[in-house]
Batch of 2 targets.
Target 1
Amino acid sequence: YRTAAVIPAAGRGVRLGPGAPKALRALNGTPMLIHAVRAMAASRHVSLVVVVAPPDGAPEVRNLLAEHALPERTDFVVVPGGETRQESVKRGLDALPDSISAVLVHDAARPLVPVDTVDSVVDAVREGAPAVVPALPLADTVKEVEPGAPGAPEPVLSTPVRARLRAVQTPQGFDRDTLVRAHEQVAVSGEGATDDAGMVEQLGAPVVVVPGHEEAFKVTRPLDLVLAEAVLARRRA
Ligand code: C5P
């Protein structure tokens, strides 16, 4: 039962401010992507990591992987990404060898996910779940609104019961055939799917949630960089 991790890292990261593609920004001197690759390779189950690079950045990413010490038991492949996260994940799936039967999809933007979280996702897939998502309960109450112009008041449509909501993280784990089928059969409009498990739900296959971890947060805004560096400093202390 071989498991691969696909890491979509082709996003520009505009919400983080101007500069290099988000995955290539440094956290404590090491690119976020390298932290994310190490987090996947830290799991003994993961034998292959497929990095989906910015469309014109594959050679640069190959160099980066060569420069940093990575576990010998893990293979690495770099492919160029697409316009949307969904397209980038699809290109990663297309690069998988036949021997792979389970796939993790992990955002480069979640560089600090602990190995125990990765392993619990893999374990649930191995035990037979076609799709597994790590997630946490919400601190904030969430409202559904009718989106208006930026900054303008927006009418509230509903307030889902907070106790039933979960904020989902990555790595999301899948039976390979299920995820490939979702990417082939599910049409997603607009900017594409932001969540692979959501595409599996649309296939009608069951998706389960396992406990996520605070340190699996997504680095999206400038303040998240501060938090990520604080987490790394605490780990080293
Ligand atoms: O933009 P967001 O934070 O939702 O991106 C999530 C992940 O998807 C990031 O790791 C980003 O690099 C990746 N992505 C991608 N290809 C795109 C857009 C986003 O690989 N076209």
Target 2
Amino acid sequence: MDLSIVIPLFNEEESLPELAAWIERVVNAHHYSYEIILIDDGSTDDSWSVIESLQQKNQHIKGIKFQRNYGKSAAMNEGFKAASGEVIITMDADMQDSPDEIPALRNMIIEGNYDIVSGWKKKRYDNTFSKNLPSKLFNKAARSMSKIQLHDFNCGLKAYKKKVVKSIEVYGEMHRYVPVLAKWAGFRKIGEKVVEHRPRKYGVTKFGWTRFVNGFLDLLTIFFVGKFGKRPMHFFGLWGTLSFMFGSLVFIYLTISKFVFDVTGLTQRPLFFFAILSMIIGTQLFLAGFLGELISRNSIERNNYLIEDTLGL
Ligand code: UDP
Ligand code: MG
């Protein structure tokens, strides 16, 4: 199969028929063999019956219905598991992403040999203050932490090689950082394509201001899990030891000044408290690293490696 189009949706009943018809137009014009996987993330409107009736008309449409609303990442994860096309395209269901971009994205994967191509909504039709500005800042932070030069991490429209989506797990609200997850999994050829963005025609946005808080925390998680997830001691152990050593040195200095130079009023000095604090924090950090190390030793994932190729086996 050439193409799987994965679409997570939550209460998008008005958009679905138009979206499906548009996608069909595009893929038929290019004679792709394809499937459209619609994941209903626990909608409370009639999205699922709309999907059922669409499926009656077109057998290429497939549906997954969640029992409740688990979030866009969960929906994407299930879509990725079900997808069987050589190229997987994700897009939002609200028609802010244009299906006309599909052929060009697919070409970049097939001919340009990209692992991922991410859409870039260079011109956005969203509120400037609640979305556009914060998202600029956000992308800057994501860029500098992940060293992936994308302008628009959170763009719903992306294309992937099959191998990429089968190697990663999207959970929490990590859908914003799929390129980062892919990079940690070892897929380095990550490209970008400017895509057309359209105003939301029906319904309302499903993410409020909490997107920024959660998005930032997820960025930190991803950074730490990716860098130190399999070796927590290298972070906590290092800083714990340094902090403890610093505290000890200060203590030695204070002790010498008391017994050798007869300085009085040790406990009145800020340095005294500083030393205690450093030693306590150092011990805590070290313990955190040690516990983390024990946990990662016991994790079932500890020896899961993605193998790109083998010879003679
Ligand atoms: N979505 C989802 N589950 C959720 C929230 C959103 O599947 O819990 C879907 C939503 O239906 C849409 C896509 O994720 O297809 C992007 O959501 P939205 O358009 O509200 O985000 P925005 O464009 O405002 O960033
Ligand atoms: Mg949208």
